[in-house]
Amino acid sequence: MNTLRIPAFILTTLGLISLVSLSGCTREFPSDKPPVHLNPNMDNQPKYKAQSKSHFFADSAAMRPPVTGTVARGQLHDDNIYYTGSVKDSQYIDKNPMTLDMPLLKRGRERYDIHCSPCHSRLGDGRGIIVSRGYISPPSFHDDRLRQMPDGKIFDLLSNGIRNMSSYRAQVKPEDRWAMVAYIRALQRSQNARLEDIPPEIREKVKP
Ligand code: HEC
After folding, report:
1. Total domains in the fold of the chain
2. Among 123, 124, 185, CA closest to 151
3. In testing the pocket of ligand 1, which one of 114, 162, 163, 188 has its CB within 8 Å of the most ligand atoms?
């Protein structure tokens, strides 16, 4: 029995010592002195923070402008037609550069319903809910002027905004803007559809 009690006593003492020493690391004993940093590991080193002042550079700003001609990765945007909707200076392209298929139209519909329908309505007639509460009424997409507008121009005006309509460049990426242009075209077709536009096999089911 005695031989067993000694290790138990030693273990209890060791346990108590470690508890006491560990409690020194807790926040229960605040100190005015800076903590002892045994291994600095390059944690503290001179550096500039964003927007801070510099005594070194002539313009006193720590942040440096990028070297002229620098292009951030993925932001070259050299495809003018895709990113602006025009060949150059307002020479708008007639046709959407994207492949027109159902996934594109579905995406366009989803984005249109989120971003545009509050004003333009889901039908595109310009009678959205915001307009019913007093906002300026946008023109209907089914006006001849807008039906004849080139795809590139619609892309441009929803990228940059027009008069009372703000720009959507920041909220909507280019491929989604093109998807919305495609969906606006589908809306325009839907409001001006002829019986011949319907596939023959389901034409009978539709009442003229
Ligand atoms: C906050 C309301 C509002 C939202 C949201 C909105 N628009 Fe408009 N939109 C307007 C108004 C108002 C006009 C008329 C601008 C003017 O002539 O002053 C307009 C005009 C337009 C025109 C016609 C421009 C012309 O030449 O007459 C198009 C096309 C258009 N918007 C597309 C869109 C698309 C696409 C979206 C979604 C990305 C959108 N709008 C979102 C309010 C809105």
Report:
1. 1
2. 185
3. 162
**CB of 193 closer than 8 Å to CB of 128:** no
Strand partners, 162: 165
**For residues 138 and 184, is the Cβ–Cβ distance under 8 A?**
no
The overall longest dimension of the chain from CA atoms, in Å, is 105
Residue type (1 letter), 33: K
Is 105 inside any structural domain? yes
Assign 8 a pLDDT band (cuts: 50, 70, 90).
Answer: confident
User: Residue 107 in contact with residue 179, Cβ under 8 Å?
Assistant: yes
Stretch 61-67: mean pLDDT: 92
**Nearest CA owner, ligand 1 atom 17:** 163
> Which of 158, 147, 133 minimizes the C-alpha distance to 192?
147
Give yes or no for residue 116 CB within 6 A of ligand 1.
Answer: yes
In this structure, is residue 93 part of a structural domain?
A: no
User: Does ligand 1 have an atom closer than 6 angstroms to the CB of 164?
Assistant: yes
Residue 205 covered by a domain: no
26-30, 62-66, 173-177, 204-208: segment of lowest average pLDDT:
26-30
Taking residues 113-130, report their average pLDDT. 96
The boundaries of the domain holding residue 169 are 100-190
Domain for residue 67, yes or no?
no
The CATH number assigned to the domain holding 173 equals 1.10.760.10
